[in-house]
Amino acid sequence: MKVPRQIRTYCPRCRRHQSHAVSLYKKGRDRKMAEGNRRSVIRKRKGYGGQRDPRQRKFSKTSKKQVLLLKCSVCGHIVPRLGIRLRKIEIVG
Ligand SMILES: [Zn+2]
Hints:
Layout: E1 2-4, E2 6-11, E3 16-24, H1 35-38, H2 41-45, E4 64-72, E5 78-86, E6 90-92
Parallel strand pairs: 1-6
Antiparallel strand pairs: 2-3, 3-4, 4-5
The structure holds zinc ion.
């Protein structure tokens, strides 16, 4: 899917339509001490001893949900737009 670099849409902070800069949401760096990471399989697999849990090999989904970040050009408020499943996304223009 092709997405324009500029979209004119509603800004909840300005409470009216403004032009927004479009970018793609990307996952940030993992925090090592986060709860889920402390109990994670990755941590348990370290050191002596083998694989503890079976690895997931079969995935039912073949694509990821892509989230667009819309940044208001007037107030700078960023709104994530609900992700849709897409094989390929391209920001054009
Ligand atoms: Zn705004």
